[in-house]
Design goal:
The chain is α/β, with parallel strands linked by helices. It contains 8 helices and 14 strands. It has a domain of 184 residues: Ribonuclease Z/Hydroxyacylglutathione hydrolase-like (Metallo-beta-lactamase, Chain A, 4-Layer Sandwich), CATH 3.60.15. Bound molecules: zinc ion (2 copies).
């Protein structure tokens, strides 16, 4: 008896996708409904919402993933107006901005000088969001809010009202230690405050975190608890081992810059700055 090899199946699938005109260019794609997609990884998690005349892109990924993501988007853009939102200034969320020529590219109110100190000119947004804007995308009411300082000085969340879905950027992570960078404004107390605001201000069924799997509201309470635990651990040496155990499955991205010890020492140095 003869079996088709895995390679054979892969090339058959490739032919099928090319014929069907819907290659995913090797990207992982979660189709939530015909107009709404989540594309995890290759940098931060991204979202695509397709309306009749406008297509909304949330975070543009990095490096090769950004280039392939752009091709995937253009296959579906059909000449529509493109609006890109960056949840924050880190390059794993903004590395594909330059591919979206003529698009409106929205980010928190960092301003161009700060942007150029921390990111590339070619990826610079053309609209700085001070507070909140709304967008109608195919009947979906999208709220884009500058939530203020937490992971960076001007984190932005994107909320789809009908779908009760929120994109948090790195304000919320699922199963990852946060990358805490002083120069862009990371502040642990502000993370906690911002997450409290999310819970109060939005009716949330689905949370798309900056990194890690999509989930429900529990992602927010779990990540808030992480910071509360780490704050306690930073003040009480007996708690440190317990917390190290509790969060031992958490991953570190970028490697060597995020992790249990990095979070602890960040909290300690922040506290000593305040005292
Ligand atoms: Zn990130
Ligand atoms: Zn980040």
């Amino acid at each position: 008896m003869k079996f088709i090899s895995l390679k054979g199946i892969a090339s058959l699938l490739a032919v099928f996708f090319i014929l069907a005109g819907c290659s995913n260019y090797g990207l992982e794609v979660e189709k939530i409904d015909p107009d709404f997609y989540i594309l995890p990884g290759e940098g931060g998690n991204s979202g695509v919402l397709i309306g009749d005349s406008v297509i909304l892109i949330i975070d543009t990924k990095m490096k090769q993933g950004a280039e392939r993501f752009h091709r995937w988007v253009m296959d579906r853009a059909e000449g529509k107006r493109i609006v890109v939102v960056n949840t924050h200034i880190h390059k794993d969320h903004t590395g594909g901005n330059h591919y979206y020529e003529n698009a409106e590219i929205v980010a928190g109110d960092y301003g161009s000088q700060f942007w150029l100190q921390n990111n590339a000119r070619e990826d610079m947004p053309n609209r700085w969001l001070v507070d909140t804007m709304h967008l109608d995308v195919g009947g979906e009411i999208v709220t884009i809010q500058n939530i203020g300082q937490s992971h960076t000085f001007d984190d932005v969340v994107v909320y789809l009202r009908n779908r009760k879905t929120i994109f948090t950027g790195d304000l919320v992570l699922n199963g990852y230690h946060p990358y805490l960078e002083e120069s862009v404004g990371a502040n642990v107390d502000d993370y906690i405050t911002a997450m409290n605001h999310l819970m109060q201000d939005y009716d949330i069924a689905t949370v798309v975190p900056g990194h890690g799997k999509t989930g429900d509201q529990d992602l927010i309470t779990t990540f808030r608890q992480y910071f509360l635990d780490m704050k306690s651990a930073s003040e009480d040496i007996d708690l440190t081992d317990a917390m190290r155990k509790k969060y031992k499955s958490y991953r570190s991205l970028p490697v060597n810059k995020a992790g249990f010890d990095q979070t602890l020492s960040y909290i300690r140095s922040n506290a000593s700055l305040r005292n």
